[in-house]
Structures are given as structure tokens and as C-alpha cells.
Design goal:
- The chain has about 220 residues and is mainly α.
- The protein folds into two domains: about 100 residues, Serine Threonine Protein Phosphatase 5, Tetratricopeptide repeat (Alpha Horseshoe); about 80 residues, Alpha Horseshoe (Serine Threonine Protein Phosphatase 5, Tetratricopeptide repeat), CATH 1.25.40.
- The chain contains eleven helices and no strands.
- The longest helix has about 45 residues.
Length: about 220
């Protein structure tokens, strides 16, 4: 008798074949279409990044340097509106949306409006900025707090100064924003919170510039209680 092994064809009607295998056979065309669609989406994404977004990033950066120079010179109007040859930050945002340059332009534009005393516009732009760098991100939050102070919205100013202090995570900016937070508490006549904030500067950031003068703030508020 021959010992040749003969493979048995898979009986797809057998209940032991499994639901997954049956699903694949029944929906083979659909699955192929879905797989092809996913591949096209991935290819489209990388094509968008390389052939559309990357050139726009370069173009936006090249267009923005004049506005940045005007901003550094505190020529706020030119920084915002630009001149005949180059766009200001407003136009960078409108023409190069979804680029890193446009995102950074929100920060520059918000700062410019803050210095011009246009606090609502400053807040709108500063809160539109999304930054990974803790220092710049904390500055955006802190300047938003400054704008709310000018609008006498102390509750929101308190929130943003606290966020700025938490975001900064360094011995220079954190005590700086904590001091501003303490002053907001004073404006709200919450002397206990102001004193606690000043004492935090003294204990956690003793080498900071703010810590060198903070005893006078603590003494002043304790005398008012």
C-alpha cells in the first residue's frame, strides 16, 4: 500500500473553517478595495507633505523675515501689515495656514497687538499659537495673562499666569510669572493666596531676581490682613 500523503482540500463550507476565513472569502473584493484606499491615503499624505506643505514652509519662512525684523525693532504696524514688498504677520497667517511659520506668526502678531494696546486681538492670536518650546509657549500664556490684566479680567489673568508658570519649568520664567500671579491675587483682594504665592517664590526659587525682593511683598500683604 502506498504511503503517499494526499492533502485534503479545505472545505470552506465546514463549520470548523471559522467565521474569519468565511468573511475574507465573502468580502474579498471589498477588502482589496479598502487596502488599496489605505495605500492611496498614505501615499497622498506623504505627497502632500513633500510636494505641497514643505515648499510652502520654505516660502513662508522666506516671506516672514521682514516682518520679524520690524517686530524686533518694535515697528508694530509694519510687523502686522507688512510693506509693499513683503507681507506682515496677518498675511502670513492668511496665506500660509497649516504651516509652522503661520503658527509662529500667531505669537508675533499677538505680541504686536499687546504692545499696541489692542488686547482682544492680542488674546485671539496668542491663544491660537501652539508651541512645543516651553519658553515661547510660556511667554504666549504669560502675555495672554497680561492682556487680561489690562482688560481687568483678573480671573482669566490668574489662570493664564498659573499656566505660564507651570509651562516654563525654569528658574527664570517660573518665578517671574508667579510674581505676576501674586499681583493678580492682590488685585482680587485675595491676600492669603498672594502671600502663599510669594512664599513659594522665596522657598522654591531663592536665587531668582524675584526672590531678592519678595520679602517686602509678603510683609506688605501680611500687614493688610
Amino acid at each position: 500500500m502506498s504511503n503517499t500523503n494526499v492533502s485534503t482540500p479545505i472545505d470552506t463550507n465546514n463549520k470548523d473553517f471559522g467565521q474569519t476565513g468565511k468573511f475574507v472569502l465573502d468580502n474579498q473584493k471589498s477588502l482589496i478595495f479598502i487596502a488599496a484606499a489605505i495605500i492611496l491615503l498614505v501615499l497622498g499624505y506623504f505627497s502632500y507633505q513633500k510636494f505641497y506643505l514643505a515648499p510652502r514652509e520654505t516660502e513662508a519662512a522666506n516671506q516672514m523675515f521682514v516682518a520679524q525684523d520690524a517686530w524686533a525693532k518694535k515697528d508694530w504696524d509694519k510687523a502686522i501689515k507688512g510693506d509693499a514688498g513683503y507681507p506682515g504677520f496677518e498675511k502670513i497667517i492668511s496665506e500660509y495656514g497649516n504651516t509652522k511659520a503661520a503658527n509662529l506668526a500667531y505669537f508675533y502678531l499677538g505680541t504686536a497687538y499687546l504692545n499696541k494696546g489692542e488686547y482682544t486681538k492680542a488674546i485671539a492670536n496668542l491663544t491660537s499659537f501652539r508651541g512645543d518650546d516651553n519658553v515661547i509657549a510660556s511667554e504666549a500664556l504669560g502675555q495672554t495673562g497680561d492682556a487680561y490684566v489690562e482688560l481687568k479680567d483678573y480671573s482669566k489673568a490668574e489662570t493664564y499666569f498659573q499656566k505660564a508658570a507651570d509651562k516654563a519649568k525654569n528658574t527664570f520664567h517660573t518665578p517671574f510669572y508667579l510674581k505676576k500671579l501674586g499681583l493678580v491675587y492682590e488685585a482680587e483682594n485675595d491676600l492669603k493666596s498672594a502671600i502663599d504665592t510669594y512664599k513659594k517664590i522665596k522657598s522654591e526659587y531663592p536665587q531668582s531676581a524675584e526672590a531678592q525682593v519678595i520679602d517686602s511683598y509678603i510683609a506688605r500683604d501680611e500687614a493688610k490682613q
